[in-house]
Amino acid sequence: MEQNRRIRFIQGNEAIAEGAIAAGARFYAGYPITPSSEVAEVSSVRLPQVGGLYVQMEDEIGSIAAIIGASVAGKKSYTATSGPGFSLMQENLGVAVMAEVPCVIIDVQRSGPSTGLATKPAQGDVMQSRWGTHGDHGIIVISPSSVQDCYDLTIQAFNLSEKYRTPVIFLADEIVGHMREKAVLWEPSPDQIINRKKPTCDPKDYKPFKPDEDGIAPLAAYGSEYVFRVSGSTHDETGFANSKPDNADRFIRHYTDKIEKNKKDIVILRRFNLEDAEYAIVTFGCSTRSALEAMKIARNMGKKVGVLQLVTLWPFADDGVRELCRKVKGVVVPEMNLGQVIREVKRVNENNIPIVGVNKVNSEAITPFEILAGIEEVER
Amino acid sequence: MSNMKFDDYLVKNKFPLFWCGGCGNGNVLGAIVRAFEELQLDRKNTVVVTGIGCWGKADDYINTNAFHGTHGRALAFATGIKLANPELKVLVLMGDGDGATIGGNHLIHAARRNVDLTAIVVNNLNYGMTGGQYSGTTPEASYTSTSPYGHIEQGFDLCKLVEGAGAPYVARGSVYNIVQLQKLIVEALNKKGFSFVEAIAPCPTHFGRRNGMKTGPKMLNWIKENSVNIKQAEKLSPEEREKKFVLGKFVDRDKEDYSTKYEKIFAIAENAE
Questions:
Q1: B45 to chain A: which residues are within 8 Å by CB?
Q2: Which positions in chain B touch A232 (Cβ < 8 Å)?
Q3: What pLDDT sits at residue B273?
Q4: Residue A212 burial (10 A CB sphere; 0-12, 13-18, 19+)
Q5: How confident is the model at residue A3 (pLDDT cuts 50, 70, 90)?
Q6: Of B67, B84, B270, the CB nearest to A230
């Protein structure tokens, strides 16, 4: 019997696997890669215990293909990888977008490009997670900053994936994936779990890509009463190929709109001491930890510093960041890349307040003092 | 369920077929739906998975469940579908470029893993959809749009490859011997585990045109003249045999499939920890 609440001292990667199972995932396909492999290992132990399936594929291309197939056959599914594997997944990530297949892709970021530094952290896949697969589309990307997040937000990732019939990318990093912290593994109640809408119409009338009023089409499972087709080629509501310009236009807009127009429901922001803040740190993932420490030190020094954590990286929190830029005198954006999130912050900076990046790509975490130096720079 | 006829499995409002005159894809499609009739497959429980290429369009004409994925990855999608619901009958339709060249890695591993899938590779010896470039099965010394001076690579013997990877059922037929091909497809569909049928097919538009066989009949005739059955092949020298399409059933053995084995994992895992 599962306990309702288990308190554990575990790695982020382990919490991700536990979160996936708690969310109802019952299918994992993956290919081992540092620093994500513990997600696979824990899944290989845990999934068969709950009637789920673990399969190791021949590469990451096959891994994402298998989870897409499993999802259409009715199982909540996920895979985990890191930079090189995430690159290999990009083509079929587009299939999940185009065929509107719920699934969760965990990218535990490491230093790149190419093989890079396999065991070292980075936050360099922010733009890849948004635009890595070709063509216009919307995507949901969630970034955890603690082991507890790894559990809670993985459940959230599955919920959003099911609700919006879309792939969700869980953009962790080596630091969060490998650090050990206390985590409460709570058992979600049925009302905390979202399952995809199933069709209720007469099987003869079922169109797998015809959205309901909420913009999302119900998804049947292979083997049910509903006989249907899904396709990664441009298709119409029936799933049959359709190359008419108005059809292509309608569906490509739909892939973007169903995410972008539901930002209010999707986007999660965490605000720390922003009420009276004169300066703000906009952060995500592992860098959040250093940002919070920098805030504490700054406050002790009498500086009014707050933190905005982008739990959801994509769709980007335009409104939340725009509002922040209206309120404060300057913003610091620490990221373990050469400036990916900062581009988005600058895009919504209507009053042209100073925005300074703290960027580090030497595979070491950004320290609170480096962020403090960034605050000093915006103060000037 | 009422008695299903072969054409009850076809999407007739998508006719005429998209393929060129003389193409073998329509013949293989016919053999498949007649095999469906023979087995009285349940449309609800059947999934046809296709890749990209001329033969990758085949699911447009079959009214079972369908999954149309990416170039070379059909077997990987199918693996997920089948393992998630082992009750499904899953057919994977691929061309030689799709299933055996870009998708070669998935082919050998699906065979090795012994997932209960039926893969039907239509081998027309070149990439038809993109204009007749050479593929992994293009015979040495033949001409394609990208081997204008004669092809210098050896073509894959797909049946040997899949046999080597451990598949329990491996066979080759051709569009010329369509009755045999249908029989092999029926057997493959009945086989528990990974079954593989290669269908040698004419592509007069591209391969034929560049190799002195501009018409469908000419290319069919060429396939006929260059085909031998397994018994006849035994009498040939290895060099002679390499130049022929050896038709027939190479492997038919019983082997526990992946999903059946996984049932035992459930039992072990339940008692673990």
A1: 223
A2: 68-70
A3: 61
A4: exposed
A5: low
A6: B67
Where along chain A do its domains lie?
5-192, 271-379
From B110, B195, B208, B210, select the one nearest B159 (Cα to Cα): B195
In a domain, B228, yes or no: yes
Q: Is the separation of the CB atoms in A74 and A106 below 8 Å?
A: no
Considering only CB atoms, which chain A residues are within 8 Å of B58?
none
Task: Determine the topology of domain A271-379 in CATH.
Answer: Rossmann fold (3.40.50)
Q: Identity (one letter) of the amino acid at B268?
A: I
Cα angle value B73/B76/B79 (rounded, 5°)? 150
Whether B18 maps to a domain, the answer reads no
For residue B112, the distance in angstroms to the closest alpha carbon of chain A comes to 11
pLDDT digits (tens, 9 = 90+) for A113-169: 999 999 999 999 999 999 999 999 999 999 999 999 999 999 999 999 999 999 999
Tens digits of residue pLDDT in B153-205: 999 999 999 999 999 999 999 999 999 999 999 999 999 999 999 999 999 99
**The predicted structure's pLDDT at residue A201:** 98
A225-248 residue pLDDT tens = 999 999 999 999 999 999 999 999
Its pTM surpasses 0.90: yes
Which amino acid makes up residue A269? L
Enclosing domain of residue B261: 24-271
Mean pLDDT along residues A45-57: 98
Q: C-alpha A105: how far from its chain's center?
A: 8
Closest CA to B26 of B50, B62, B74, B73: B62
Same fold: A5-192 with A271-379: yes
Chain B interface with A: residues with Cβ < 8 Å: 14, 43-45, 47, 49, 57, 59-60, 63-70, 73, 75-85, 87-88, 105-106, 109, 113, 258, 262, 265-266, 268-270, 272-273
Percent of chain A at pLDDT exceeding 70: 99
C-alpha closest to that of A24 among A6, A51, A62: A51
Q: Which residues of A touch B10 (CB under 8 A)?
A: none
Q: Is the pLDDT of residue A2 over 80?
A: no
- Could you tell me if residue B158 is inside a domain? yes
Residues 223-262 of A with CB under 8 A from B: 223-233, 239-241
Buried b (16+ CB within 10 A) or exposed e, B1-36: eeebeeeebbeeeeeeeebbebbbbbbbbbbbbbbb
**Chosen from B83, B260, B262 to mutate, greatest number of chain A CBs within 10 A:** B83
| Gyration radius (Cα) of chain B, Å | 18
Number of domains forming the structure of chain B = 1
pLDDT, one tens digit per residue, over B142-156 is 999 999 999 999 999
Q: How far is CA A242 from the centre of its chain?
A: 31
**Domain harbouring B259, CATH code:** 3.40.50.970
Residue B107 lies in a domain: yes
Which residue type, as a one-letter code, is found at position B155? G
Quickly state the pLDDT bin for B271 (edges 50, 70, 90). Answer: confident
Would you place residue A1 in the very low, low, confident or very high pLDDT band (cuts 50, 70, 90)?
very low
Answer yes or no: are the C-beta atoms of A92 and A65 closer than 8 Å. Answer: yes
Distance of CA B56 to the CA centre of its chain: 11
Q: What ipTM did this prediction achieve?
A: 0.97
- Give A5-192's CATH code, choosing from 1.10.3720.10, 3.40.50.970, 3.10.350.10, 3.20.20.70: 3.40.50.970
CB contact under 8 A, A232 and B14: no
